[in-house]
Amino acid sequence: MSGLEAILSDPAYHDYLAILKGARNGLVYGVKVRFPHALIMAILFGRGDWQTRLKAIYRATKQHALNLAKFVSLYKTLLLLQKKANGGKERSFDTFIAGLIGGYVVFGERSAVNEQIVLYVCSRVVASFLSRAKTPYSSATPAAPGRPLPPDSTQFSIFAAVCWGAVMWLFNERGETVQPGMFNSMTYLYRDSEHWNSLRTLLWHNK
Question: Which positions of the chain have pLDDT values less than 70?
Answer without folding.
Answer: 1, 138-146
